[in-house]
Design brief:
The complex is a heterodimer of chains A (about 500) and B (about 100). With about 500 residues, chain A is mainly beta. Chain A is built from six helices and 28 strands. Chain B has about 100 residues and is an alpha+beta fold. Chain B is built from two helices and five strands. Chain B has a five-stranded antiparallel beta sheet with strand order 2-1-5-4-3, with helices on both faces. In chain B, a hairpin with a 3-residue loop joins strand 4 and strand 5. The radius of gyration of chain B is 14 Å and the shape is globular. The chains are: A mainly beta (about 500), B alpha+beta (about 100). Chains A and B meet through helix 1, helix 2 and helix 3 of A and helix 1, strand 1, strand 2, helix 2 and strand 4 of B.
């Protein structure tokens, strides 16, 4: 029934498939440009060369002097310049004053003390029956040109009301008349202390034997009295700086033991100087080693205060020398009436003079009736140095001053002599005799190389110091170091 | 030549003149009355100082120029007269 059937295959052409047509084609790009370039790097190489030093060059040129010079130009230059230079040379010869320093100080080793002026006021000498003829105190003005001398007597035993004088000389005046002072003030009692104000030279403070403190205004020729006097003679005066610029501050010390702080109003005319504060040194406030018994007041004979930046002392610290020989550091600040802050070892006998060193803030020098000058460190009770003044015991040492320019030098008056001491060793540098009457007071000039000494016959001598005693530039460093070395002894002890 | 020498002698004859040096614009001494080493020292130092002084004056005012320079010391005075090409240095001790 069923059997396999194979049909025929059919073929038909595609409607869409066609044969691809191919054709060969060529194209050409532009040529690729190439360049060839050579390059070379540098190779360093070391090489040495040698020049002459400038001085050698100059020396060699000097040797071949005439080679490269245009003589004409040179002579033209010289003729132009010669006139100017010659004129200047001649001017230099004629005006010598610029070089007079070197002329004056040419002799650098001049250690002399030469008397320049002798001031002897006739008015005082010729007063009849006047016992107040000694020049008891001197003060220089801040500029060093004027000097004020207080006349009085150191021999007062009882209360005296003899009139006395304060005389002022200006040493720069060409017609300086040594016998007649420029200004004179008559006061009712012997003058024991004078003090020029360091920056305002019209104010001179005067302290009298009667205890009165007054301020003489030489510009207005006016006297301002203190409100109430001391009970005993005023022995020392010191101008201080007042915090308020309208006022002046003065501190006075007296043998009644009081330190009175005064204030003066600068602009207003006032007849009275007001008391700011009074402090009293009483023996009960001193330790037993001061050797004073009982409850008496300790009389003050001299005082000084350190100066730091301003020309006036401004700190309230004052170091005081007393009648019994005590040396006490006091403070003017605070309200309590006891000013004592520190007590140093005593001298034997009244302390006549005390001065703080300008070059060290903790050193001061004192001199007393026991013929000793002592250097104390402000923080230590026993003195660092003691200088025994030679000469007979009757030679009173009334004053000691530091040198204003040399840190280690001090001037001491001993009777009729002035001795110059180097305090570091201590050694005597020089002693100068000044003549008969004993010296009662001495002050160094704050800005010039001179010293004023007042004698017991009323004569004041102005002495010029030799340049070796004054000129300090070469030694100031060593001497300041030497002063510091003395103070180091306090630490080592 | 002799004129130059004469002028130098005249300047040197003034009272107190210790020495005179003529220096050229490079700082090299041309004529001198002092010894070599002193001359060389003075010439170099003063030349530099004069250049400095001149530039100072001109910096402050460009139309100004240095005409004379004086150096006073404790021991003597050094006077310098500058020019475009030369420099004259005279050392004088006036207190003699």
């Amino acid at each position: 029934m069923f059997h396999d059937y194979e049909s025929k295959t059919f073929e038909f052409c595609s409607f869409w498939k066609t044969e691809k047509k191919l054709r060969d084609c060529n194209s050409q790009t532009s040529a690729i440009l190439t360049y060839d370039v050579d390059n070379q790097t540098t190779r360093p190489r070391d090489a040495e060369c040698q020049t002459e030093t400038f001085s050698q060059l100059m020396k060699s040129k000097l040797a071949h002097q005439d080679e490269n010079i245009d003589q004409e130009k040179l002579s033209k230059f010289l003729s132009n310049v010669e006139e100017v230079v010659s004129k200047q040379l001649k001017i230099n010869i004629s005006c010598n004053h610029l070089y007079s320093w070197s002329l004056k100080h040419g002799n650098v080793n001049d250690k002399s003390i030469v008397c320049e002026h002798v001031l002897d006021e006739d008015g005082v000498k010729q007063e009849k029956n006047n016992i107040n003829k000694e020049a008891t105190c001197i003060s220089w003005s801040g500029s060093g040109a004027s000097i004020v001398v207080g006349f009085g007597t150191n021999e007062n035993i009882s209360w005296s009301e003899n009139k006395s004088f304060v005389c002022l000389w200006n040493l720069d005046r060409p017609k300086l008349n040594p016998h007649k002072c420029d200004h004179k003030l008559e006061v009712e009692s012997s003058v024991q202390a004078v003090a020029f104000h360091p920056t305002l030279p019209q104010y001179i403070a005067v302290g009298l034997f009667s205890g009165v403190v007054l301020v003489w205004n030489i510009v207005k020729d006016d006297i301002i009295y203190g409100e109430s006097p001391h009970e005993d003679p005023v022995t020392s005066l010191l101008w201080f700086e007042h915090q308020n610029n309208k006022y002046l501050r003065l501190v006075s010390g007296s043998t009644d033991g009081k330190l009175i702080s005064w204030r003066i109003r600068k602009d207003k005319d006032s007849n009275l100087m007001k008391i700011d504060q009074t402090k009293k040194i009483n023996s009960k406030n001193l330790p037993r080693r001061a050797g004073v018994k009982g409850q008496t007041a300790i009389g003050i004979t001299c005082l000084d205060s350190p100066i730091h930046d301003s020309p006036l002392p401004s700190s309230g610290t004052v170091v005081v020398g007393c009648e019994n020989g005590s040396v006490i550091k006091c403070s003017l600040e605070g309200v309590e009436s006891n000013p004592v802050t520190f007590v140093y070892d005593n001298h034997v006998g009244p302390v006549y003079s005390i001065q703080w060193s300008k070059f060290h803030r903790n050193l001061f020098i004192t001199c007393a009736m026991d013929q000793l000058c002592r250097i104390y460190h402000a923080l230590q009770t026993n003195p660092l140095r003691e200088i025994r003044i030679g000469g007979s015991v009757s030679n009173h040492i009334y004053s000691v001053c530091w040198s204003t320019t040399r840190p280690c030098m001090a001037y001491v008056t001993s009777g009729t002599d002035i001795e110059v001491w180097d305090v570091t060793t201590p050694s005597l540098i020089l002693a100068t005799k000044l003549g008969k009457p004993p010296i009662t007071s001495m002050r160094t000039n704050p800005s010039r190389p001179s010293i004023a000494t007042g004698c017991s016959n009323g004569v004041v001598q102005i002495l010029k110091l030799g340049s070796r005693l004054v000129h300090a530039d070469d030694v100031i460093k060593e001497e300041t170091m030497a002063l510091y070395d003395i103070t180091k002894e306090t630490i080592n002890e | 030549m002799s004129e130059v020498e004469e002028t130098i002698k005249r300047i040197q004859s003034h009272k107190g003149v210790l020495g005179i040096i003529v220096v050229n614009s490079e700082g090299i001494p041309i004529r001198t009355s002092l010894d070599n080493s002193t001359t060389v020292q003075y010439a170099g130092l003063i030349h530099q100082l004069t250049m400095k002084a001149r530039s100072t004056v001109r910096d402050i005012d460009p139309q100004n120029d240095l005409t004379f320079l004086r150096l006073r010391s404790k021991k003597h005075e050094i006077m310098v007269a500058p020019d475009k090409e030369y420099l004259l240095i005279v050392i004088q001790n006036p207190s003699e």
